[in-house]
Amino acid sequence: MNIEKLTKEVRNVPDFPIPGIQFKDVTTLFKNPAILHEIVDGLYEIYKNKGITKVVGIESRGFILGPLLAVRLNAGFIPIRKPGKLPAAIFEESYEKEYGTDAIQIHQDAIDSDDIVLLHDDLLATGGTMQAAVRLVRKFNPRKIYVNFLIELEDLKGRVGFPSDIQVDSIIKYDI
């Protein structure tokens, strides 16, 4: 992957969703088919030999690359959603974000103990959302959990909050 090219394609949106936040808009990466292929191919290369059986995408931008990567890895795709969106029995985790409190949910039958899970989201900032996702997935006692982000805001040190047994990868890294 040409990380410099990818970095330049990400749009910065000041003061979104609230004043003081510099939002990293990844939709600019997805509109170009060559760049989208490059990202999916690059992610595939990282995880192709890990035995991934389920890719879990975090609402909503994790629903873009998550299924594409699941198809490449011959794995299933599992959505983690905001409250009230899943129709069957769920597990829920609350967490603090850099600009508020939120919760996420997963179906109680989404993952098996034999699964090797890759959690994917677009951005690692403080890590609250993905740490809650890891707590949800651990309820299933899978064989292994991997975590991946398209973008990491390194100065916020979000990766510090993950257990040492979880490999955390990010593609594009920014100092903010």
Characterise this structure:
With 176 residues, this protein is an alpha/beta fold. The chain is globular, with a radius of gyration of 15 Å. α3 packs across α4 (62-73). It contains 5 helices and 9 strands; from the N terminus they run αββααβαββββαββ. The strands form 3 sheets. A 5-stranded parallel beta sheet has the order 4-3-7-8-9, with helices on both faces. It has a two-stranded antiparallel sheet with strand order 1-2. It has a two-stranded antiparallel ribbon with strand order 5-6.
Largest sheet, spatial ordering of strands: 4-3-7-8-9
How much of the residues is beta strand, in percent?
Answer: 25-35%
Q: Could you tell me how far the N terminus lies from the C terminus, measured between alpha carbons in angstroms?
A: 22 Å
Cα Rg: 15 Å
The sequence of SSEs as H and E is: HEEHHEHEEEEHEE
Total helical segments: 5
On the 0-100 scale, what is the average pLDDT? Answer: 95
- Overall number of strands: 9
Based on secondary structure, the structural category is alpha/beta
Low-confidence stretches: none
Task: Record keyword descriptors for this entry.
single chain; 176 residues; alpha/beta; 5-stranded parallel beta sheet; two-stranded antiparallel ribbon
Lay out the secondary structure.
Layout (H helix, E strand, L loop, with lengths): L2 H7 L1 E4 L7 E4 L1 H4 L2 H15 L6 E5 L3 H12 L2 E5 L9 E8 L2 E8 L8 E9 L3 H11 L5 E10 L13 E8 L2
Parallel strand pairs: 3-4, 3-7, 7-8, 8-9
Antiparallel strand pairs: 1-2, 5-6
Helix pairs in contact: 3-4
Write a brief structural summary:
With 176 residues, this protein is of the alpha/beta class. It has five helices and nine strands, in the order αββααβαββββαββ.
